[in-house]
Amino acid sequence: MTDFWRHKPLFSLSPDEWEALCDGCGRCCLNKLEDVDSGEVYYTNIACHLLDITACRCRDYARRAEQVAECLVLARDQPAAFDDLPSTCAYRLLLEGRPLPEWHPLISGDPESVHAAGMSVRDKVVSEAYIHPSQFPEHIITWVMPGRRLSEGLLQEKEEAGAMIPPYSGADPKKE
Ligand code: SF4
Ligand code: SF4
Questions:
Q1: Is residue 57 part of a domain?
Q2: What is the pLDDT along the chain (176 residues), one digit of tens a residue?
Q3: With CB atoms 3.0 to 4.6 Å apart as the test, which of 2, 46, 138, 173 could cross-link to 31 if both were Cys?
Q4: Residues having CB within 6 Å of any atom of ligand 2
Q5: How many A from CA of 105 to the centre of ligand 1?
Q6: Best substitution site from 46, 54, 61, 64 to test ligand 2's pocket, by max atoms within 8 Å of Cβ?
Q7: How far away, in angstroms, is 163 Cα from ligand 2 center?
Q8: In a domain? residue 16
């Protein structure tokens, strides 16, 4: 099935389909800061030290969870990880009942389209290896935004009902 993401529930995807759903943007590999008072989350342009900033791929994907404790390893039994995905992430879009954007490689047929559309972190970020933690607040960005929280209850509801979460009313990712 060439357009599997339109017909299969997220948690029914095969391992290959699951990996193909990632658009390769690298946005989830950016460091985030949380306001302890408001709970607001802000992305920075500081990337995980394992991210290849040009390829926008993890240098040790198979062992990422062992290498980086904060790495978002998406799994059916880890619903909290989905809460931290950026607003444009393909896994989040499907959970929110939204279509994949035209720049997604599954739609365009071109793995470079995510970069050409300016949606990836390529050439826009710096490795955390070069930034002191005290400087992180100076690196807050607005071109990557968090999405709404996808609580465990919503994920369970979706899984049980085999249906989509009600349509998201936020920004169109193609306009970000
Ligand atoms: S934000 Fe989502 S689509 Fe982009 S690299 Fe991370 S998991 Fe893949
Ligand atoms: S360890 Fe996780 S956060 Fe770091 S580059 Fe790899 S996938 Fe991204």
A1: yes
A2: 689 999 998 889 999 999 999 999 999 999 999 999 988 899 999 999 999 999 999 999 999 999 999 998 888 777 788 888 999 999 999 988 899 999 999 999 999 999 999 999 999 999 999 999 999 999 999 999 998 887 555 556 655 655 444 444 444 444 34
A3: 46
A4: 29, 48, 50-51, 58, 64, 67-68, 71
A5: 12
A6: 64
A7: 30
A8: yes
d(CA 84, CA 73): 11
- What does the alpha-carbon distance between residue 158 and residue 166 come to, in Å, rounded to a whole number? 10
Half-sphere exposure of 65 (CA within 13 A, CB side): 7
Range of the domain at 81: 4-161
Q: Kindly report whether the global pTM for this prediction surpasses the value 0.85.
A: yes
Total structural domains within the chain: 1
Q: Tell me the torsion sign for CA atoms 38, 30, 49, 135.
A: negative
Residue 46 within a domain: yes
Question: Relative to the alpha carbon of 22, which ligand is closest?
Answer: 1
